TrEMBL record:
<dbReference type="InterPro" id="IPR005636">
    <property type="entry name" value="DTW"/>
</dbReference>
<keyword id="KW-0819">tRNA processing</keyword>
<keyword id="KW-0949">S-adenosyl-L-methionine</keyword>
<dbReference type="InterPro" id="IPR039262">
    <property type="entry name" value="DTWD2/TAPT"/>
</dbReference>
<dbReference type="Pfam" id="PF03942">
    <property type="entry name" value="DTW"/>
</dbReference>
<feature type="domain" description="DTW">
    <location>
        <begin position="143"/>
        <end position="372"/>
    </location>
</feature>
<keyword id="KW-0808">Transferase</keyword>
<dbReference type="GO" id="GO:0016432">
    <property type="term" value="F:tRNA-uridine aminocarboxypropyltransferase activity"/>
</dbReference>
<dbReference type="GO" id="GO:0008033">
    <property type="term" value="P:tRNA processing"/>
</dbReference>
<protein>
    <recommendedName>
        <fullName>tRNA-uridine aminocarboxypropyltransferase</fullName>
        <ecNumber>2.5.1.25</ecNumber>
    </recommendedName>
</protein>
């Protein structure tokens, strides 16, 4: 989640919200009855056998949106789960949202992982263990339930409605994602690699050493003058897109479209997590940047505000926006600069806008079918214009 000065985000395409978005509750008895009669069956519990089914293959791992090998600690967590299942009389069962363990196995695993966490000697290892456990459970618990591409239940898959679009080859997004947002159905960061491809929008999971080292290596190759974070750094003035980019020139740099090593790319890091988690994520990024270059991580402030997803996904306030909306705002503001106007960034922003609409429609249809509210919880009414 990102925070920016409040200005309504200008979505160029028209999108018609259901009339229920305009009211706090759905009061029609007929509508409510219809909704409940069409509720899809609740998610069935997913049972993992002790005969090796729990193992995660490279193909399965990369199918969730990453190019990396399986992280070593994720593999270790999976092996520990299999060993615990073998040594206990309980089945490994996942149920509910976010791949959560359930039943007797959950009780035993909870005791074991807490003991393991306490036994770890330093905060870095504890963070890596926390992240690996979150991710391992989400992958195992989502197997056969979520579509690997769009992270929605298979019956609600929206992949056929998404239209891919090449991102200008001089721009690269890094989705620095918290483990608790990984495989989250209403996550919008996933839309960037679904539309632009995983080379143009790369997933980096917070606390996963292999991912953070991969991103660090690419940023080092690009150089400190080609790295920015879209985050309001309270301890240093954040520059606008115009202040940061208006003087850049590309005419003297040879960079063919097929170049993928990132050496000539403008790298933009998007922090993809809840607002409460973003502070720790930014602090980790800042420390790594200072260790690499001995300087402050440059931050960019966008002139954007609430996105379409505010209609469905509760936010702390209306001036904190989703990850996809931040990417849209950046591309739009870059397009407004004379030195970027010829690269079609406005069309690329529009492609993400369309993807956000597709996601919102899919989530709305699912909630209606399940008889759940499709109105945003009213918080911080003083922020609503």
């Amino acid at each position: 989640m990102l925070f920016f000065p409040t200005r309504p985000l200008s979505f160029r395409s028209s999108f018609h919200f259901p009339h229920q978005f305009c009211s706090k509750t759905i009061t029609s008895t007929t509508t409510t009855a219809t909704m409940h009669s069409s509720v899809s069956p609740s998610r069935e519990s997913h049972k993992v056998s002790s005969s090796g089914e729990a193992a995660i293959s490279v193909e399965e791992w990369q199918g969730w949106g990453t190019t990396s090998p399986i992280p070593a600690m994720v593999t270790q967590v999976v092996d520990d789960l299999k060993l615990l299942q073998k040594d206990s009389d309980a089945d490994m069962i996942f149920g509910g949202n976010h791949g959560k363990l359930s039943g007797d196995f959950k009780v035993q695993e909870d005791k074991k992982h807490r003991a393991t966490y306490q036994s770890l000697g330093d905060s870095e290892t504890k963070l890596q263990f926390f992240s690996a456990r979150q991710i391992a459970c989400r992958v195992l618990g989502s197997r056969g339930y979520l579509c690997q591409k769009c992270w929605l239940p298979s019956e609600d898959c929206m992949c056929s409605k998404l239209i891919s679009c090449p991102l200008w080859h001089r721009v690269r997004f890094w989705l620095y994602m918290h483990p608790k947002d990984f495989l989250r159905q209403n996550n919008t960061g996933k839309l960037l690699w679904q539309v632009f491809g995983i080379q143009a929008a790369t997933l980096c999971l917070y606390g996963i050493a292999e991912h953070e080292e991969m991103m660090g290596g690419a940023l080092k190759l690009a150089g400190k003058d080609k790295v920015w974070c879209l985050y309001p750094n309270k301890n240093a003035p954040a520059k606008s897109v115009k202040d940061s980019m208006a003087e850049l020139s590309f005419s003297h740099v040879e960079c063919p479209p097929e170049t993928t090593d990132g050496g000539h790319s403008l790298n933009f890091i998007l922090i993809d997590g809840t607002w409460s988690n973003s502070g720790a994520m930014f602090s980790r990024l800042k420390d790594r940047y200072e260790l690499m270059w001995g300087d402050e991580l440059p931050c960019i402030m966008l002139n954007t505000g609430a996105s379409l997803m505010h209609k469905l996904r509760p936010q702390p306030s209306w001036d904190r926006t989703c990850t996809a909306a931040a990417a849209i705002g950046l591309l739009d503001e870059l397009h407004d600069l004379p030195n970027f106007v010829s690269y079609g960034l406005d069309k690329q922003a529009k492609a993400i806008e369309d993807a956000v609409e597709v996601l919102l429609e899919a989530l709305t249809a699912r909630r209606l079918r399940m008889g759940r509210s499709i109105t945003r919880k009213q918080r911080h009414n003083r922020d609503i214009l």
